[in-house]
Amino acid sequence: MTAETAQTAPVTVRAARTSDVRAMRELIEPYVRRRILLGKELVTLFEAVQEFVVAERDGEIVGCGALHVLWEDLGEVRTIAVAEGVMGLGVGHRMLDALEQRALDLGLSRLFCLTFETEFFGRHGYVEVAEQVVSPEIFGELLRSIDGGVHEFLDLAHVKPNTLGNTRMLKRL
Ligand SMILES: CC(=O)SCCNC(=O)CCNC(=O)[C@H](O)C(C)(C)COP(=O)(O)OP(=O)(O)OC[C@H]1O[C@@H](n2cnc3c(N)ncnc32)[C@H](O)[C@@H]1OP(=O)(O)O
């Protein structure tokens, strides 16, 4: 395939495999450097590989995104990113659709995200939420988690530097 046809080759969205993990890390790295996404160690990505979907074009990973379950009814969209040359082609929305389908299959009814991309998520049905979205009882249960993303969801003081300027958004599925 020539470079030109590779640009127009179809994009497939599918479940991530362990062999995709290094490419996923390379894809998210520029956004981590710009403090748009939280950096993830390779081991963390391998451990979470089942949470991820990837977008593949001509054998190359051009997008990734994850669904993390927080509670019985509640999940979080994490680490959704598209390679710069592929932005604006609908790949982000397709990955979000796939993650939302997974959420429905798991029995979730609400999805949370923490993001600078309020227009992208807004057009996908997410609305800004200021308040906590779980009861004090479930908040207490979630405090037992050692996951940094859960600490961000809970808006704990020690992770506030990571989340500065981000908007908390929620979608009812
Ligand atoms: C919870 C979190 O993970 S927060 C972190 C979010 N990630 C980042 O900030 C990393 C940097 N940003 C990115 O990687 C990307 O910009 C993303 C993931 C936010 C969006 O991915 P993209 O693939 O560019 O989005 P996508 O193309 O689906 O939609 C963007 C726009 O493209 C246009 N578009 C959508 N579908 C098509 C299509 N088929 N053809 C052409 N244009 C299209 C629309 O105008 C769309 O606008 P909308 O979002 O207002 O509806």
From TrEMBL:
Domain of life of the organism encoding this protein: Bacteria
Pfam families: Acetyltransf_1
SUPFAM superfamilies xrefs: Acyl-CoA N-acyltransferases (Nat)
Signal peptide location: none
InterPro entries assigned to the protein according to its UniProt record, in alphabetical order: Acyl_CoA_acyltransferase, GNAT_dom, NH2A_AcTrfase
Membrane is among the record's keywords: no
UniProt keyword Acetylation, yes or no: no
Keyword field: Acyltransferase, Transferase
Domain N-acetyltransferase: 11-147
UniProt-listed PANTHER family: AMINO-ACID ACETYLTRANSFERASE (PTHR30602), AMINO-ACID ACETYLTRANSFERASE NAGS1, CHLOROPLASTIC-RELATED (PTHR30602:SF12)
UniProt name for this protein: N-acetylglutamate synthase
Species in which this protein is naturally found: Agrococcus terreus
